[in-house]
């Protein structure tokens, strides 16, 4: 499997907002650095918002601006579509403990069936604006919201059938630190979409429209193994070519479960418009029941947990340490 490699690394600094493609990323057992450390809280219901609730969230563009000389490691620059009338602002990338001690912390934030903690961002945005992060975001959402930074309480992943003692932790990701998906799997899904044009609510434009991988919001994108090859693995090792003769270096990932899909991938990452059929209805046609443990839920991609810390890079090769036991 020497031909399988990382073709893209995607980080999503704010939960459900636009992702950014990077050439390399640091990682820990909690996932990629800067991935989903922030979220948006709906004040009225004390819950974390996602693009399932508000599709136009996906048009908010966080940009990571690293500055090693900064006490916070740099800034997170947040911009909006021009037509929104919302101005760009920035906040500390990694707020240090001294700053966090000045922010209010909430201990019972609703996120699916979980109760999470988080700090309300109270840092002053860039000097160019007199507004707060919350007021700018509230203007965009047209209701009171807060920008939240994950609090210190450890959030433990749910165990899976193959990993009943899974003790991994994460931030504001849906359920696990990483999502791994191959380009060929998305290409196969696009081919299936073409078959249903004119039926099942699949519009004529899907004769030509591309099903972009960003719809599925993966972290590690692979190429070279064929459609759904990731379904077959339980543990992989990602290494540069220069590390290939060593088994003790590189990014180890335990693939703990297949990722069940909801309607979020129906939201186009460039327009924020939710399609009424694609890809969810098509996935239900050919990707339901691929994992009997998930029942009739459609699966696309696999959930992963890094087994250590280090740096992963585009171009790193994929080595299969363990195949999934059937």
Automatic annotation (TrEMBL):
Using the record's annotation, list all stretches that form the MOSC domain. 154-321
Q: Which organism is it from?
A: Piloderma croceum (strain F 1598)
List the InterPro entries. MoCF_Sase_C (IPR005302), MOCOS_middle (IPR005303), Pyrv_Knase-like_insert_dom_sf (IPR011037)
What's a Gene Ontology MF term here? catalytic activity
Q: What is this protein called?
A: MOSC domain-containing protein
PROSITE patterns, sorted:
MOSC (PS51340)
Residues annotated as coiled-coil are none
């Amino acid at each position: 499997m020497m031909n399988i490699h990382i073709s893209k690394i995607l980080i999503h600094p704010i939960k459900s907002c636009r992702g950014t493609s990077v050439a390399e990323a640091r990682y820990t057992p909690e996932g990629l650095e800067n991935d989903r450390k922030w979220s948006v809280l709906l004040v009225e219901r004390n819950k974390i918002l996602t693009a399932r609730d508000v599709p136009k969230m996906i048009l908010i563009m966080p940009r990571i601006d690293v500055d090693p000389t900064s006490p916070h490691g740099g800034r997170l620059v947040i911009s909006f579509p021009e037509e929104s009338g919302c101005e760009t602002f920035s906040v500390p990338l990694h707020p240090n403990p001294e700053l966090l001690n000045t922010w209010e912390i909430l201990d019972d934030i609703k996120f699916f069936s979980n109760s999470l903690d988080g700090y309300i961002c109270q840092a002053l945005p860039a000097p160019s604006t007199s507004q707060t992060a919350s007021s700018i975001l509230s203007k965009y959402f047209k209701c009171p919201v807060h920008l939240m930074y994950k609090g210190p309480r450890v959030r433990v992943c749910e165990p899976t059938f193959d990993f009943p003692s899974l003790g991994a932790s994460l931030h504001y990701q849906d359920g696990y630190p990483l999502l791994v998906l191959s380009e060929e799997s998305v290409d196969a899904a696009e081919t299936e979409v073409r078959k249903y044009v004119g039926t099942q609510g699949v519009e004529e434009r899907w004769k030509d429209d591309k099903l972009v991988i960003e719809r599925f919001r993966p972290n590690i994108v692979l190429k070279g193994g064929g459609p759904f090859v990731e379904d077959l693995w339980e543990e992989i090792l990602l290494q540069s070519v220069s590390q290939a003769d060593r088994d003790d270096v590189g990014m180890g990932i335990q693939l703990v479960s297949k990722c069940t899909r909801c309607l979020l991938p129906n939201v186009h990452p460039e327009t924020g418009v939710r399609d009424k059929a694609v890809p969810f209805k098509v996935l239900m046609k050919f990707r339901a029941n691929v994992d009997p443990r998930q029942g009739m839920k459609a699966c696309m991609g696999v959930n992963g947990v890094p087994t250590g810390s280090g740096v992963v890079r585009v171009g790193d090769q994929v080595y299969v340490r363990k195949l999934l036991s059937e």
